[in-house]
């Protein structure tokens, strides 16, 4: 269903657009430290000179108009873009103090440590139990699977709803339950980071609220980065917000980071007119 629109008006002076992205207040404990990141699909530079620090055990929201590179940036964080042909990345992207793209880094291990929840629920055509248990099995984790399945479903606030039907198909669940199952599946392999690409866009308002509550509960143990077009959602759940937009360059249109910072500041006193225009619905 379509995202609810948000029209918020602020009356305050904001500096003119243009110039470099504004520096956010320092993130003391950064899980990701990104500097001058550029990404290409073939000859098209989709991201240009993105620099951002993402704090540990925080929720960081990525906002901006369609086509500004939010999802591309998110997929850079766990090397999902490696799966696409004719792509290229330059710049620095450190994860836990180590270069994420250095030679010898195993992308499969990175995707275990940095899990991803997609826009639409995508459970496997298996039972509820097997959806959670399959990844630990494949990864060779030495654990009691029954305990791990219960723990993961409990962390995803789903155990009480499914504990008596674990052998039923995952497709028997509602859309919101399926998305929480996908979160449980991600949690089961013990990641450090959970990436979420518009995880509520296909859900009704009640299911959306439940996912938002779940994100808030999970950040005590995980770093969460979420792409969302819903300004109200970003304002409700995130600790920090990064606003991306699109700029025209001789080699084509590129996504750029305009500014980032604590969510309350981005939504009440942004440093760039473009951010203010987007948040208040004047463009994008």
Give keywords.
single chain, 284 residues, alpha/beta, Rossmann fold, six-stranded mixed beta sheet, four-stranded antiparallel beta sheet, 10 helices, globular, disordered N terminus
How does this model look, in words?
- With 284 residues, this protein is α/β, with parallel strands linked by helices.
- It has a single domain (30-279), classed as Rossmann fold (3-Layer(aba) Sandwich).
- Helix content is 31%, strand content 26%.
- It has ten helices and ten strands.
- It has helices spanning 70-76, 107-113, 128-138, 145-155, 159-162, 175-187, 205-218, 231-237, 263-268, 273-279; strands spanning 30-41, 44-55, 59-63, 87-95, 98-99, 114-117, 193-197, 223-227, 240-249, 252-262.
- The strands form two sheets. Strands 6-7-8-3-9-10 form a six-stranded mixed β-sheet, sandwiched between helices. A four-stranded antiparallel β-sheet has the order 2-1-4-5, with helices on one face.
- α6 packs parallel to α7.
- The relative contact order is 0.21.
- Mean pLDDT is 89; it is low at 1-24.
The DSSP helix count reads: 10
The CATH level-2 architecture is identified as 3-Layer(aba) Sandwich
Oligomer: single chain
Total strand count, please?
A: 10
Instruction: Give me the side-by-side strand order of the main sheet.
Output: 6-7-8-3-9-10
Could you name the CATH class?
A: Alpha Beta
Radius of gyration: 19 Å
Described by strand count, sense and barrel closure, the largest sheet is: 6 strands, mixed
Order of helices and strands: EEEHEEHEHHHHEHEHEEHH
Query: Unreliable stretches, pLDDT < 50, 5 or more residues?
Result: 1-24
Query: Roughly what is the average pLDDT, rounded to an integer?
Result: 89
């Amino acid at each position: 269903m379509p995202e609810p629109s948000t029209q918020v008006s602020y009356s305050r002076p904001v500096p003119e657009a243009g110039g470099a992205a504004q520096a956010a207040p320092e993130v003391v404990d950064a899980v990701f430290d990104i500097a001058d990141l550029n990404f290409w699909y073939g000859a098209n530079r989709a991201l240009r000179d993105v620099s951002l620090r993402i704090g540990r055990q925080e929720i960081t929201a990525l906002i901006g108009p369609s086509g500004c590179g939010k999802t591309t940036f998110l997929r850079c964080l766990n090397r999902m873009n490696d799966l696409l042909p004719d792509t290229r990345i330059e710049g620095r992207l450190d994860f836990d103090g180590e270069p994420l793209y250095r030679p010898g880094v195993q992308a499969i291990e990175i995707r275990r440590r940095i899990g991803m929840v997609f826009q639409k629920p995508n459970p496997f055509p298996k039972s509820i139990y097997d959806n959670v248990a399959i990844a630990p099995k494949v990864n060779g984790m030495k654990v009691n699977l029954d305990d791990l399945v219960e723990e993961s479903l409990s962390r995803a606030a789903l155990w009480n709803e499914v504990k008596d039907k674990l052998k039923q198909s995952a497709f028997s669940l509602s859309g919101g339950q399926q998305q929480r199952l996908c979160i449980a599946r991600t949690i089961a392999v013990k990641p450090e980071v959970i990436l979420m690409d518009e995880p509520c866009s296909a859900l009704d308002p009640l299911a959306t609220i439940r996912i938002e509550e779940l994100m808030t509960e999970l950040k005590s143990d995980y770093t969460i980065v979420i792409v969302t077009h819903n300004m109200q959602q970003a304002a409700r759940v995130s600790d920090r917000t990064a606003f991306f937009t699109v700029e025209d360059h001789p080699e084509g249109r590129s996504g750029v980071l305009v500014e980032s910072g604590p969510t309350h500041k981005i939504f009440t006193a942004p440093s760039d007119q473009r951010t203010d225009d987007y948040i208040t619905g004047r463009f994008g």
